[in-house]
Design a protein that fits this description.
Layout (H helix, E strand, L loop, with lengths): L1 H15 L12 H13 L3 H9 L6 H9 L6 H4 L6 H8 L3 H6 L3 H26 L59 H14 L1
């Protein structure tokens, strides 16, 4: 009986023991890189179209895998993603209507075209929110009241004692000193004196 109990105890202990958890040999590095590569492939609408045409979206396990990959939206993982459009398409792939629509080539081209226009205009649209806006116009300050003026006292009038002098006599111009015609001084000019000298020499 003891042996039976012992055997029964062993079976119970083995059944109640926890299951061994799988551990990656490289601490999950290989799994991290594979999932990072796959989720960034979702940024390409042509790749999503390929998955839809090959009926990957009809597999429940694959749908569950897409739901599992949503952890890449957390801040500690999103910093490793180089193509952020993959997160947007990952969110859309959670919808069954989008998964079925991406099997059509026209929808694939539409998604690719919209993605191109986003890349084309993203910088200009972003600059509208980044560039500084003009400062508001300054509000006019209220007028400053002038200080009160002191009363001006009148200055008493003092009579001036300055003597007024007579104006100076006008100065004659050089022309006014000219000898008038027919005066007695005209005989003593240079020409008449020269003639008199000649007459004196002839007479002598």
């Amino acid at each position: 009986m003891a042996s039976i109990k012992e055997d029964g105890d062993d079976s119970l202990s083995s059944s109640s023991s926890p299951m061994s958890v799988y551990k990656d040999p490289d601490d999950g590095r290989q799994r991290f890189l594979l999932e990072l590569e796959f989720i960034q492939c979702l940024a390409n609408p042509t790749y999503i179209h390929y998955l839809a045409q090959n009926r990957y979206f009809e597999d429940e396990a694959f749908i569950g895998y897409l739901q599992y990959l949503q952890y890449w939206q957390q801040p500690e993982y999103v910093k490793f993603i180089m193509y952020p459009h993959c997160l947007y398409f990952l969110e859309l792939l959670q919808n069954a209507s989008f998964r079925s629509a991406m099997a059509h080539p026209g929808n694939k081209e539409l998604a690719h075209r919209q993605q191109f226009y986003f890349w084309k205009n993203y910088r200009n649209n972003r600059l509208k929110h980044i560039l500084p806006r003009p400062l508001p116009e300054p509000v006019a300050a209220p007028p400053v009241s002038a200080p009160p003026q002191l009363p001006v006292q009148p200055v008493p009038h003092v009579p001036s004692t300055i003597a007024v002098t007579a104006p100076p006599a006008p100065v004659l111009s050089p022309m006014q000193y000219a000898i008038p015609h027919g005066s007695a001084l005209g005989k003593n000019d240079i020409r008449s004196s020269g003639v008199d000298r000649r007459k004196r020499k002839k007479e002598g």
